[in-house]
Amino acid sequence: MDEKKRIIIAEDRTIVREGLRLLVSSNPHYSVIGEAEDGHQAVKIAVELQPDLMLMDLTMPRMNGMEAIREIKKQCPHIRVLVLTVHDSDEFVTAALHAGADGYVLKEANQTELMLAITNVLHGKRFISPGISEKVIDGYLNDRLQVKAPALIDTLTHREREILKLVAEGYKNKEIADMLCISIKTVEKHRENIMKKLDLHNVSSLTAFAIEKGLLEKKDAHL
After folding, report:
1. Using CA of residue 89, residue 63, residue 209, residue 122, what is the dihedral sign?
2. In 10 A of CB 37, how many CB atoms?
3. H or E element at residue 158
4. Helices and strands counted in the chain (H then E)
5. Is the pTM of this model over 0.85?
6. What span, in angstroms and rounded, lies between the C-alpha atoms of 111 and 185?
7. What does the pLDDT profile of the chain (223 residues) look like in tens digits?
8. Alpha carbon distance 185, 47 (integer Å)
9. In this structure, which topology does domain 5-142 adopt according to CATH?
10. What's the longest Cα–Cα distance across the chain?
11. Which CATH number fits domain 152-220: 3.40.50.720, 1.10.3720.10, 1.10.10.10, 3.90.650.10?
């Protein structure tokens, strides 16, 4: 008899995580061996438990799913990663796949589609929810995009990048406003837009993103 495939669920909402555990565990071929409620925890238990598959949300505290995927694939490239998210934009799909995701499923999917996605990804295939644009699927799988999809950093305006760098360097809203000669409300609005575009929701995540994208050196950041 084949051994059960070992799966970890990374999802910050408890009720969703519990529902996914019950659904996945209902298949006699799968075993949920761990759960994570944030990106840092997802990376930690992935390295420790070495699952066959990570079922990964993209919007999580401390470290978002995109960063977690990159780190997991860096440390454990053999672990398959299936994204389960509400984000259906081309930007998020392309960024997740380039980060190393092996599949991408929308949370609006039904149980049959999700289980099919898990099975396909575990068998070394890619699975993309039908609701995602065919253009993104074809472009990524064939690796023949004539125009490279914009990275998340490229969605920020010059001013937003400027403010992101200052936030990552530890400056407060008033200090940033004084430095740039703009109002505090304007700074707050820019920060709101930055967090929405990058799907990052705290200073630590913004700082990690800024370092990763080369906006500042690690020694310049103080959390």
Report:
1. negative
2. 18
3. helix 158-168
4. 10, 6
5. no
6. 44
7. 468 999 999 999 999 999 999 999 999 999 999 999 998 999 999 999 999 999 999 888 778 888 899 999 999 999 999 999 988 877 788 888 888 999 999 998 899 999 999 999 999 999 988 877 565 656 555 554 444 445 677 788 888 989 998 998 888 999 999 999 999 999 999 999 999 888 888 888 888 888 777 776 544 444 4
8. 42
9. Rossmann fold (3.40.50)
10. 69
11. 1.10.10.10
Which residue stretches of 8-148 are H helix? Answer: 14-25, 39-49, 65-75, 90-99, 111-122, 134-142
User: Quick check: 106 and 139 in contact, CB under 8 A?
Assistant: no
Residue whose tokens read 């200052």: 166
Q: 131: burial class by Cβ within 10 Å (0-12, 13-18, 19+)?
A: exposed
Joined tokens for residue 129: 């929810």
Q: How far is CA 109 from CA 85, 132, 197, 206, in A?
A: 10, 11, 24, 30
H or E element that contains 53: strand 53-56
